[in-house]
Design a protein that fits this description.
Elements: H1 20-30, H2 44-67, H3 74-87, E1 91-92, E2 105-108, E3 111-113, E4 128-137, E5 140-149, H4 155-174, E6 180-181, H5 182-195, E7 199-200, E8 206-208, E9 215-219, E10 230-231, E11 236-239, E12 242-244, E13 250-252, E14 260-262, E15 268-270, E16 273-278, E17 281-284
Antiparallel strand pairs: 1-4, 2-4, 3-14, 4-5, 6-10, 7-12, 8-9, 11-16, 12-15, 13-14, 16-17
Helix pairs in contact: 2-3, 4-5
The protein binds 2-amino-4-trifluoromethylsulfanyl-butyric acid and cobalt (II) ion (2 copies).
């Protein structure tokens, strides 16, 4: 039996001439690269749907930015997210997702991601918090997160927040043309994090998104150039580097089954956008 993986094979449309995209993908596939299936290529209509979800998603994170303050509980943030989403005809994707109990993730300081909003978690001066929100509109998903700094934080935590942002922008820059590999993104992001003395979380990654919450491919934020999936026009995916001040290792809170914390309990920062790859590189759909 042939043990070669045939899972990610590009299929040609019967009776249609080969397009430029077909040729590029087939050439990569012949060199043993991981290529998308046709099902990962969104139609223009689907991309517009995801873009519309992104508009609401952006407005939610803007609203959080306007309202967030010292003394506020993360449950109050969740209520803002829920109310805004519902009143705009959309649905918070996190709510009920694999049993997640709230409408967004709120991850403070050493919490890497998937923090659960709670009335007992009160924001304090100097906290850094990630609010991660995924919005479903008419069946289309847009996923983004931002860091918010409560008052003034330490120079070191501010640096972490800034470098995590730069890592996202570097990922975007790598995607300024199509036919790059997921590994090109991760390689560049890890280099930048390491150059600043920080580390990249490996246990969680970005992902395809749009018709479902989490689709192929995995978008790792470390790795080697030319590895991982080829990114071609029509693919929609997130980049969402989680950058740690100390070790890259993390653990999951056993009690709630969700909250991911850095192993050494040093601070962590993350930013996330949803992107669509086009003939001219990526366009951000979540701003
Ligand atoms: N929004 C997260 C992501 O970027 C996933 C959160 S899943 C949840 O992929 F269940 F914790 F909400
Ligand atoms: Co997210
Ligand atoms: Co995501």
């Amino acid at each position: 039996m042939n043990s070669k993986k045939t899972k990610n094979k590009w299929t040609l449309l019967p009776g249609q001439p080969l397009t430029e995209m077909d040729k590029r993908i087939l050439a990569a596939q012949d060199r043993g690269k991981l290529v998308p299936t046709r099902s990962l290529i969104k139609t223009p209509e689907q991309i517009e749907g995801i873009r519309a979800a992104g508009v609401i998603n952006t407005a939610i994170l803007d609203l959080v930015g306007e309202r967030i303050h010292e003394g506020m509980s993360t449950l109050e943030i969740d209520k803002l997210v829920y109310d805004y989403t519902i009143s705009h005809g959309a649905t918070p994707a996190c709510l009920g997702y694999e049993g997640f109990p709230k409408s967004c993730c709120t991850s403070i300081n050493e919490v890497v991601c998937h923090g659960i909003p709670n009335e007992l978690d009160i924001l304090e001066e100097g906290d850094i918090i990630n609010v991660d929100c995924t919005t479903i509109l008419n069946g289309y998903y847009a996923d983004a997160s931002r860091m918010y700094v409560i008052g003034k934080t330490t120079p070191r935590k501010q640096k972490l927040v800034d470098v995590a942002w730069e890592c996202l922008k570097i990922g975007e820059e790598i995607c300024s043309k199509p036919y790059v590999y997921v590994g090109d993104i991760g390689n560049a992001i890890a280099k930048h994090a390491h150059a600043n003395g920080f580390r990249v979380v490996r246990d969680l990654c970005g992902h395809g998104v749009g018709l479902e919450f989490h689709e192929e491919p995995d978008v790792e934020h470390y790795g080697h150039k030319g590895t991982g999936m080829l990114l071609v026009p029509g693919m929609v995916f997130t980049i969402e580097p989680m950058i740690n001040m100390g070790t890259w290792q993390v653990f999951c809170d056993e009690e709630d089954g969700w909250t991911v914390v850095s192993e050494d309990e040093m601070p962590s920062a993350q930013w996330e956008h949803t992107f669509v790859m086009t003939d001219n590189g990526v366009e951000v759909l979540t701003h």
